[in-house]
Amino acid sequence: MKRIITLTVIVVCTLCQIKAIDFGDDRGITASAFFGCSHYHKKITYGGYWESDDYHPVITPRIGYRFNSAWEAGLLYRYEGQNDENEHYSGIGVYGEWSFLRFPRGFRLIAEAHILYNFFEGDKDNGWHGSSNMTEAGVMPCFAYRIPKSPVDIKLRYLFLGFNDSHRFYKGEAPGCLGRGDWIIDASLRRLEIGASITF
Predict the structure, then answer these.
(1) Is residue 28 within 8 Å of residue 199, measured between CB atoms?
(2) Count of beta carbons in the 10 Å neighbourhood of residue 27
(3) pLDDT, tens digit, for every residue of 129-157?
(4) Per the CB 3.0–4.6 Å rule, which of 29, 66, 111, 136 could disulfide with 72?
(5) How far apart are CA 191 and CA 183, in angstroms?
(6) Where would I find the beta strands (DSSP E) of the chain?
């Protein structure tokens, strides 16, 4: 019986605290996560002709601080699968967001900038051309929707413009990536991510 009473008091106090939160104040610690899918199309011409389409997960959790309704900055981690042999990129970096355009009903357009260093992990002796680390710095547009009377944003981002010094096969095997040098416009599937952000 004591446990039930104690649990009831905790739940009531928690609900009262949540009700007291001012969701109009955008300042605070933010936690967010984005999810997507990478697509690689490979053509092998030596020893016969062979094609494959590979799809792998892309996951980007972040933690940051929202200074006001327009600005946010923090740290991020990015995971991108490469093939069926457990080869992948794991990256750490920093990001910043600027909400530069607001629409009615809680919609807004965001410019996100990030600097990211990616470690390649896997069997580097298997002959895969992209077995090298990668540095990336650039901007991504993001469309956000604030759920009414809550601290939660639903976000959709797509397209990357900027510097990426990865191996050319990382870019060439991803349909939609323009450029094989260090400066690219990446409109491949791996840049389409949906996520959510909550401000505490």
Answers:
(1) yes
(2) 14
(3) 555 889 999 999 999 999 998 899 999 99
(4) 66
(5) 15
(6) 28-44, 50-66, 71-81, 88-102, 107-121, 134-146, 152-157, 160-164, 177-178, 183-186, 193-199
